[in-house]
Recover the amino acids of this structure.
């Protein structure tokens, strides 16, 4: 028996199918239209099917402004270097005043700093972190963001790629350890007399710690190298009979200690002495190590005071700035830390500093020249030297550490935002905590910093005994409008033992003579050579 459906029910089923087909067709049409709209207005990321729909009127370069201003955005990748030299030139290594490359446009800086208005002057105060000149705090979100570069969709994180970026960014030239006999004013110089064995070194590959000493200070070299673990260029003052014990001390350090490999690998020694106090014999560089040191003997600097020195017996002044400049000029790397041998850096500083530079290439094109000062501290004589900021903070809290020269000349080494720096917690990466100037309360500041060969030299007419040996260089930095990018998580600690002010009639007399020399001769010369700027003093 055949069963027939009612006519009304059959029509209802047919209508139902037609409605479903109509809805499907409408969905397909809508999807087709939307896809064309998105393709027309959106921007695709390479290698991706995802679309980023731009807001109307927003330039693609400034699209980072759409992101929340609380989240630092990565800077745009640097353009490839071409024959037309599209990349702005980096500071040169030729000496004299630093000539920084031109600053990036407002659009270029905007992607790296959400706090700056689109198209605003990147060198205006707003381009730096908002807290500068305020209550303190890290500025890396604004100017030294911890970003990885992006190249063709690939995140650049490897050391090799960072090194390539540094090569392009710094545009420095590679040097070599060439032994030379030179005259520098009234001094003979044996440059690269005893060379490090680390082999060829690219100018972007490391940082050189440059310093000076007589042989009684060489007990500081091993603790310095253990923390620095990178090239050291040291100028040794060796007048008269100080030459031979200096050579013996160097041999002892290179041949007789478990750490001797560190000395051989990283330390280059230069010798200098006055033309009026030449040693009776000076070995040729190739003959220095023909006779090894007797390692059963104590080190030549053991239990030797400065009174034993030829310099002291002849009442010679220590030409501190001659040594500083010799060691600095001989450094193979673009970046140098001109310091004193008794100041020990926190470990890992070299690697973290170069990583910071590599990831902030766009920002480093700021117009003003810059150096990177390190905060300096002293610890008690029986204390170990702190290895990181967290440990240093504990020393400061318990009184085992104090800011450098706090009891001798607090204003000479007072660092802008120092209280905020000491209170801020340690972070994993290196960053710039604050950008300061050598003006106001800090007009007599004697910063020790990571700089380059382009920074002004130290005046070689000044001695250690006469004091103020870094003041004239500080004036030049101020007049040239240097920015002082104070590093967070990086510091120097003096060899254990807190200094106190001691009366020294001879130094007081020599300091008076030095002040007259600066006021009557050097300062007028500086005004002619560098000019003047309000707030800059010697």
């Amino acid at each position: 028996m055949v069963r027939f459906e009612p006519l009304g029910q059959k029509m209802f089923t047919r209508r139902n199918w037609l409605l479903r087909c109509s809805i499907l067709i409408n969905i397909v049409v809508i999807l087709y239209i939307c896809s064309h709209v998105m393709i027309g207005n959106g921007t695709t990321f390479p290698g991706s099917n995802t679309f980023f729909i731009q807001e109307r009127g927003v330039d693609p370069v400034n699209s980072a402004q759409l992101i929340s201003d609380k989240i630092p955005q990565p800077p745009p990748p640097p353009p490839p270097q071409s024959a037309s030299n599209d990349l702005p030139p980096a500071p040169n290594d030729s000496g004299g005043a630093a000539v920084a490359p031109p600053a990036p446009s407002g659009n270029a800086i905007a992607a790296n700093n959400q706090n700056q208005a689109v198209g605003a002057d990147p060198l205006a105060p707003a381009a730096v972190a908002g807290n500068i000149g305020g209550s303190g705090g890290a500025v890396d979100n604004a100017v030294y963001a911890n970003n990885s570069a992006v190249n063709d969709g690939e995140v650049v994180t490897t050391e090799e790629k960072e090194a390539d970026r540094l090569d392009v960014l710094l545009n420095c030239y590679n040097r070599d350890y060439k032994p030379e006999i030179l005259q520098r004013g009234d001094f003979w110089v044996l440059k690269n007399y005893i060379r490090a064995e680390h082999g060829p070194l690219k100018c972007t590959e490391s940082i050189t710690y440059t310093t000076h000493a007589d042989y009684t200070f060489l007990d500081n070299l091993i603790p310095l190298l253990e923390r620095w673990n990178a090239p050291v260029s040291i100028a040794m003052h060796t007048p008269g009979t100080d030459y031979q014990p200096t050579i013996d001390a160097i041999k002892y350090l290179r041949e007789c200690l478990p750490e001797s490999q560190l000395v051989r690998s990283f330390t280059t020694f230069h010798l200098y002495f006055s033309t009026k106090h030449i040693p009776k014999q000076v070995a040729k560089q190739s003959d220095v190590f023909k006779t090894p040191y007797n390692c059963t003997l104590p080190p030549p600097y053991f239990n030797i005071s400065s009174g034993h020195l030829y310099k002291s017996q002849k009442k010679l002044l220590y030409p501190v700035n001659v040594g500083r400049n010799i060691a600095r000029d001989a450094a193979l790397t673009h970046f140098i830390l001109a310091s004193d041998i008794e100041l020990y850096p926190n470990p890992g500083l070299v690697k973290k500093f170069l990583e910071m530079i590599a990831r902030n290439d766009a920002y480093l094109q700021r117009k003003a020249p810059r150096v990177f000062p390190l905060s300096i501290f002293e610890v008690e004589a029986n204390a170990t030297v702190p290895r990181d900021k967290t440990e240093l903070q504990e020393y400061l809290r318990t009184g085992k550490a104090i800011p450098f020269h706090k009891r001798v000349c607090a204003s000479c080494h007072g660092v802008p935002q120092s209280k905020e720096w000491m209170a801020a917690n340690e972070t994993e990466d290196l960053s710039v905590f604050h950008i300061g100037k050598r003006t106001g309360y800090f007009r007599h500041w004697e910063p020790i910093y990571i700089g380059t060969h382009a920074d002004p030299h130290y005046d070689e007419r000044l001695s250690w005994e006469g004091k103020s040996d870094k003041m004239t260089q500080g004036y030049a930095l101020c007049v040239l409008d240097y920015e002082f990018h104070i590093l967070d998580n990086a510091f120097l600690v003096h060899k254990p033992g807190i200094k106190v002010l001691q009366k020294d009639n001879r130094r007081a007399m020599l300091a008076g003579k030095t002040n007259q020399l600066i006021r009557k001769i050097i300062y007028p010369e500086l005004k002619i050579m560098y000019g003047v700027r309000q707030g800059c003093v010697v």
User: Anything to note?
Assistant: The two ends are 119 Å apart (CA to CA). The mean pLDDT is 79. DSSP finds 13 helices and 18 strands in the chain.
